[in-house]
Amino acid sequence: MVKGIEKFGIPVVHMCTVVPISLTVGANRIVPTVAIPHPLGNPNLDAQEELALRKRLVDKALHALETEVEEQTVFE
Q1: Distance between CA atoms of residues 6 and 1, nearest Å
Q2: Number of domains in the chain
Q3: Based on C-alpha coordinates, what's the Rg of the chain?
Q4: CA separation for the pair 16, 9 (Å, rounded)
Q5: How is the beta sheet containing 13-16 ordered, strand by strand?
Q6: What band does 2 get if pLDDT is binned at 50, 70 and 90?
Q7: What is the pLDDT of residues 44-75, one digit of tens each?
Q8: pTM for the complete prediction?
Q9: Which residues span the domain enclosing 17?
Q10: Cα separation of 56 and 36, whole Å?
Q11: Which residues contact 6 (CB under 8 A, 6 or more apart)?
């Protein structure tokens, strides 16, 4: 689906827990996330730490959207 959307000129960020799968499906902008059961959070953190974690991941995804890429790029 990521590649299909990008064919129309809309940049997409694939946030994922398993980067090799994203690379295999051809995602251009990849942001690694936390873990399979909790990709955008960590229930072991207190509320403020988890909010900060989520904000960092969303900020990273927004940065990836703004970045022109020529090939598959993983935003660590």
Answers
A1: 9
A2: 1
A3: 13
A4: 22
A5: 13-16, 29-32, 73-74
A6: confident
A7: 999 999 999 999 999 999 999 999 999 999 99
A8: 0.90
A9: 2-74
A10: 18
A11: 12, 28
